[in-house]
């Protein structure tokens, strides 16, 4: 039955016979590289099979990993999110640390530049009452900090010590309504008194109406108050009016951003004027 | 039964080819391939499948007995057996002339495949290809036609001799 069936399909038998012969010949004949043709052809054919098999396996693996194994991915995703949050927190810490380092570096530069006996202090608290612009620093009498010592920052004058304790001190900011400092306009050397307004700005008083004052002029400490060393920046004149009396009304924009104070320097060296005043007493 | 006879004929042809042919055709430029003639005869008598199987077996045995690449002669004779069987099934090839032509074509095809494969595979170079091929084709055709006629004429001749002989009392 099978033989009769084969006889009806001579093409199939011929193909099989040719294939048999080709295989036989290939097994005995070498290519130019000296490798048997059968080996080359077999390798080539099976490499295609392997390629196809690998494609199928890769496809199945892709479907598996892309769809079926999503549960594991979900867990991994949750873990990664947690790790990301942790890293974001750490990044913020690092940024804060870098900012703090930068602030400290600026303080250090200021101390070297000012040639004053200073001590660095960290702001540990803000004003307890919104009507009084004060801060608390972490250095006190144990660091030889005393009343009326000037407090400065790289940007400019901050205020003065009004209440030192053993390991902390309260500092009255220059923008407080009760604060004042001897000042002068750097460009014209016109002197006056800078006082706090209470709303975050300063005003300069007792400047004659004939004085040469321009918006944008830099105002620095004059040193005559016996608290603040001479030449430190207070702020920039925002606008200057004629005023009703003999003096001008000058509004100053502070150089220091009091809302972002973190580190300050407490000047332990008394100004020359006070030193001179204290000298006879000794 | 027919397959067994074909196989036996092939074996006899190979035996004759390897033993007697060297004596019979010694000194002749024509190389007679008795095995090829048998394959063609089996093919035209039994059809393409038997023909190609006969060619495969005969060719492989010939290759195995010679120092050639196993399969090249087999492939050539397979193609010849198939083609001869196909032509035998499609056309009437009982007369001597068609058989002569068929044997010539078969020889040409066989030699073409045989030499072609050897040349393509860079295994051997052939000189005087056409001349030797034509000579072999004529030789195979002549011997084949004579052999076919004898094979088909002899059994009838014996019967006729027996029928014409007077009965012994």
Question: Describe it for me?
Answer:
The complex is a heterodimer of chains A (282) and B (169). Chain A is built from 5 helices and 12 strands. Chain A has helices at 2-7, 10-28, 37-68, 70-114, 272-281, and strands at residues 118-125, 134-137, 150-153, 156-164, 169-173, 180-185, 191-196, 202-205, 218-221, 233-241, 249-254, 263-267. Chain A has a 6-stranded antiparallel barrel with strand order 1-2-5-4-3-12. In chain A, β10 and β11 (249-254) form a beta hairpin. The mean pLDDT of chain A is 84. With 169 residues, chain B is mainly α. Chain B is 79% helix and 0% strand. In chain B, α1 runs antiparallel to α3, α3 packs antiparallel against α4 and α5 (72-90) packs antiparallel against α6. The model of chain B has no long low-confidence stretch (mean pLDDT 84). The A-B interface holds A 6-7, 10, 13-14, 17-18, 20-25, 28-29 and B 47-50, 52-53, 56, 60, 69-72, 74-75, 78-79, 82, 85-86, 117, 121, 123.
Structural class of chain A: alpha+beta
User: Which of globular, elongated, flat, extended, rod-shaped describes the shape of chain A?
Assistant: rod-shaped
Q: Determine Rg of chain B (CA atoms, Å).
A: 17 Å
Distance between the termini of chain A: 137 Å
Shape of chain B: globular
Stretches of chain A where pLDDT is under 50 for at least 5 consecutive residues are none
Total count of strands of chain A: 12
Bin the strand percentage of chain A: 15-25%
């Amino acid at each position: 039955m099978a033989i009769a069936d084969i006889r009806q399909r001579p093409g199939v038998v011929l193909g099989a016979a040719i294939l048999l012969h080709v295989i036989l010949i290939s097994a005995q004949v070498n290519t130019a590289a000296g490798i048997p043709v059968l080996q080359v052809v077999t390798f080539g054919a099976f490499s295609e099979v392997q390629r196809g098999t690998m494609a199928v396996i890769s496809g199945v693996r892709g479907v598996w990993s892309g769809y079926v194994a999503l549960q594991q991915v979900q867990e991994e995703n949750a873990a990664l999110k947690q790790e990301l949050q942790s890293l974001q927190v750490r990044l913020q810490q690092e940024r804060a640390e870098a900012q703090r380092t930068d602030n400290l570096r600026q303080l250090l530069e200021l101390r070297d530049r000012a040639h004053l006996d200073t001590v660095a202090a960290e702001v540990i608290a803000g004003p307890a009452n919104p009507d009084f612009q004060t801060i608390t620093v972490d250095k006190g009498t144990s660091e030889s900090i005393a009343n009326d010592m000037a407090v400065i920052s790289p940007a400019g004058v901050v205020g003065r010590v009004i209440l030192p304790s053993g390991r902390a001190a309260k500092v009255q900011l220059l923008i407080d309504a009760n604060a004042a400092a001897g000042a002068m306009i750097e460009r014209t050397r016109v002197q006056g008194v800078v006082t706090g307004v209470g709303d975050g700005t300063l005003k300069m008083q007792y400047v004659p109406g004939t004085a040469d004052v321009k918006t944008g002029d830099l105002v620095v400490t004059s040193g005559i108050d016996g608290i603040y060393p001479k030449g430190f920046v207070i702020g920039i004149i925002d606008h200057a009016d004629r005023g009703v009396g003999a003096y001008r009304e000058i509004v100053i924009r502070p150089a220091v951003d009091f809302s972002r104070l973190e580190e300050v320097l407490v000047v332990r060296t008394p100004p020359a004027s006070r030193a001179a005043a204290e000298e006879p007493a000794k | 039964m027919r397959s067994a006879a074909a196989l036996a004929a092939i074996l006899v042809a190979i035996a004759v080819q390897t033993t007697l042919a060297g004596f019979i055709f010694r000194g002749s430029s024509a190389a007679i391939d008795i095995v090829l003639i048998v394959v063609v005869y089996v093919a035209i008598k039994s059809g393409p499948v038997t023909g190609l199987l006969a060619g495969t077996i005969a060719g492989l045995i010939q290759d195995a007995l010679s120092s050639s690449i196993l399969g090249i002669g087999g492939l050539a004779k397979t193609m010849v057996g198939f083609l001869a069987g196909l032509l035998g099934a499609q056309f009437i090839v009982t007369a001597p002339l068609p058989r002569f032509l068929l044997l010539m074509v078969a020889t040409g095809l066989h030699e073409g495949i045989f030499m072609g494969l050897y040349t393509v595979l860079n295994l051997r170079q052939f000189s005087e290809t056409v001349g030797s091929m034509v000579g072999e084709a004529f030789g195979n055709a002549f011997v084949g036609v004579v052999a076919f006629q004898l094979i088909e004429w002899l059994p009838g001749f014996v019967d006729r001799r027996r029928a014409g002989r007077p009965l012994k009392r």
